[in-house]
Amino acid sequence: MEQLLCPKCRMEIKSNSDFCNKCGLDLIKINELIRDGDKFLNQEKYQDAITCYEKAIKLGKNNDLAWYGKAKALLKQGENSENVTLCVKCQLCPVLSEAFYEDAIKCYDNAIRINPKFKDAWQGKGMALEKLGRSEDARKCFENSK
């Protein structure tokens, strides 16, 4: 069974705890924010999702799920900005999508730093790197996701 750590102070916590006994962090609030972010992500409301994940990160910066969620939302925003490019031939959209992918990679890196065995984060980072044409780096991430 995997050890659960407080996303703020990194103290071990019980799986059914509502608060961290050391720092008092409200674990229920963080989980609600991540759950709300996931709902917005599924509804393709990416900015709302990012806002939820960022609030969770502010409460506990060592929360791999919050970083992962934010990265996923940024990756999706990048893909959407590419689709806009195809429709409107906008010159800014390719630059915008690159910025989303770069930001997503940073968030995936945070999730991986917190939890090096987070296979979905490795997979997502590989997808973002692939979008940027960094195939060799992407391949290494995909290998880590297995």
Give the topology.
Blueprint lengths: L26 H16 L3 H14 L4 H25 L4 H22 L4 H13 L3 H10 L2
Helix pairs in contact: 1-2, 1-3, 2-3, 3-4, 3-5, 4-5, 5-6
List its traits.
6 helices; globular; repeat; Serine Threonine Protein Phosphatase 5, Tetratricopeptide repeat; 146 residues; TPR-like_helical_dom_sf; mainly alpha
Give a description of the structure.
- The protein has 146 residues and is an all-alpha fold.
- The protein has one domain (27-144): Alpha Horseshoe (Serine Threonine Protein Phosphatase 5, Tetratricopeptide repeat).
- Helices cover 68% and strands 0% of the residues.
- It has helices at 27-42, 46-59, 64-88, 93-114, 119-131, 135-144.
- TPR repeats lie at residues 30-63.
- This is Tetratricopeptide repeat protein.
- Keywords: Repeat, TPR repeat.
Largest sheet: none
The low-confidence parts are none
Name the CATH architecture: Alpha Horseshoe
Q: Roughly how many Å is the radius of gyration?
A: 16 Å
Q: Class, according to the CATH hierarchy? A: Mainly Alpha
Question: Helix/strand/pairing class, anyone?
Answer: mainly alpha
Q: Could you give the count of β-strands?
A: 0
The ordered H/E elements are: HHHHHH
Anisotropy-based shape:
globular
Pfam families: TPR_11, TPR_17
InterPro entries: TPR-like_helical_dom_sf, TPR_rpt, Ycf3/AcsC/BcsC/TPR_MFPF
Organism: Candidatus Methanofastidiosum methylothiophilum
Protein name: Tetratricopeptide repeat protein
